[in-house]
Structure formats: structure tokens, C-alpha cells
Amino acid sequence: MPNDESDTLRRRSFMTKLAGVTAATAASAVGMRHAQAAPTSDPYADPANPALTKGNMKLDVSRAALVVIDPQVDFMSSKGLAWPVVGESVTEHKVVPNLVRLFEESKKAGITVAISPHYYYHWDHTWKIQAPLEIFQHKIGIFDRKGPLSLDGFQRSGADFMPEFKKYIEDGQTIICSPHKLYGPQANDLPLQLRKQRVDQIILAGMLANMCVESHLREFLELGFEVAIVRDAVAAPKIPEGDGYLSALINFRYMANGLWTTDETVDMLRQKV
Questions:
Q1: Who has the most CB within 10 Å: 16, 209, 227, 262?
Q2: Tens-digit pLDDT string for the chain (273 aa)
Q3: Which segments of the chain does DSSP mark as H helices, in order?
Q4: How many domains does the chain have?
């Protein structure tokens, strides 16, 4: 987290500028749509005549786990550092209340619940090789912690878990994995922890839809897991480069074994197939 006032001001200025560019781009797009008199429709609606057969995953709670990626303040709270670029999507899809429902019903169903968090330590900020999103994250100081052996300053920081989730995550039963550093679980112990619980079905939710969620999906599929995405329990940035949620949703339709809503997932958990 910020160590001095100048660092805080620098980050705030950066995020304000980015949010301004995003708003201007959105306004321009709206104006163009009006000028063209294009019909309004839900950009996230499934195609009326899909070419692909939907995945046929059927939930079996005896071998399933809920995996939630980055359920942290910096991504899901209006106080978080990434809120100017992800807040619209988080709010639009009701991600926080939907995740509360998923946590609650998963606990009642007795399935494994695991968290794949994102933390950065000071040495991570010295990386010599960085891609655009890495540069963005390091510039604003998202998910910063003092170090892996210290919780000093962790409580109520941007790296901390959302208050709404804490009673589920900190119940002594939820598996809190080591952090993933880029997007997928290749560098943390999440696949090992799931295998040790004899889990081979995953209900996947969290942030960011087009980065960490999609990367976890791809890796789990390559490892032979069966994976369903909860489509209204994920969100992504909306910036001039594109709508990350729409990008992810398209790929989820191609790859996921299941693409479910929170309501559908809750119903399946209650049935305890």
C-alpha cells in the first residue's frame, strides 16, 4: 500500500486520468450509436442461433469445489485502487452479492471452497519483464503487502478480503492458497490443494474475467478438470482497449464445460446431485 503522500497522489492522478479517458470513450461510443440509430440490445446476451453445443457439465458435490479468484478490496470495493476501471462491471453484474450467495450455498452443501489470491511484495515491483496489465498493477500498487511472512498493514488494505466474504473465508475450513503472480494458477498451490481433496469439478468465479479467471479456466482444462464459470459472479475492466467482460464471455462460450448464472448454481448446490 502507499508509503507516503506523494505516492498516493501519483496513483490517484493516474487512476483519475484513466477513468477520464474511459468515460470519454464511452460517451463517444454512445454518441455514435445514437447517430447511427442502431437498435439497443444486451451485448452480453447469448446468441439466438449458436453454432456450438453448450457444455454438459452436471454438478456432483462429492467431487466439486468453489474456487474464487481475487475476492479482494482492490478489485471489488469502491475503495479499491482498481475501482475506476472495474467498478462499472462489478456493479452491473452484482458480483459481490452473488459471491456471498455462492459462498453461503457452497458451505451448506459441504463442498471444498478455495481462494486463489493475488499479492505483490516489494521485489515484485522490480520485475524487468512486464506486460501492459502488470505495468498498470505495479504503478497503482494494487494488492501490495509488506511480505509473505508479515500481516502488518494487511487488515483493511486493498489486498485484504472483502468484508462481506470474511466469515466464509476465515472460518478455518476454506483453503487459502499461495498467491498467483500473473493470471493463472501455475505458480501457486491451488491445483495441488484441489487434487488432495479429490476434486475434479470446479465452480469458478471472481476477478478479472478476461485475465485471471480465464487463465485459471484454461489451466484447469489442460489439467483435466471439469470447469463451470458463474457468469454473473465475474467482472472485468472497461477501458478504451475494450470490454474485458465481453471478451471473456466469448471465450467462456467456446471453452467452459458449463456457463451458469448464480441462480442456476445455487439451485444445483441445493439439490446436492
A1: 209
A2: 445 555 555 555 555 555 554 455 444 444 434 434 444 589 999 999 999 999 999 999 999 999 999 999 999 999 999 999 999 999 999 999 999 999 999 999 999 999 999 987 888 888 889 888 777 777 877 878 888 888 998 899 989 999 999 999 999 999 999 999 999 999 999 999 999 999 999 999 999 999 999 999 999 999 999 999 999 999 999 999 999 999 999 999 999 999 999 999 999 999 964
A3: 5-36, 73-76, 83-92, 95-109, 132-140, 166-169, 190-196, 214-222, 244-255, 262-271
A4: 1
Q: Check: CB of residue 177 under 8 Å from CB of residue 117.
A: yes
User: Cell numbers of 2, please?
Assistant: 502507499
CATH number for the domain spanning 216: value is: 3.40.50.850
Radius of gyration of the chain (CA): 19
* Residue 44 falls inside a structural domain: no
Task: Please name every residue paired with 235 in a beta bridge, in sequence order, or none if there are none.
Answer: 207
Residue showing cell 498467483: 180
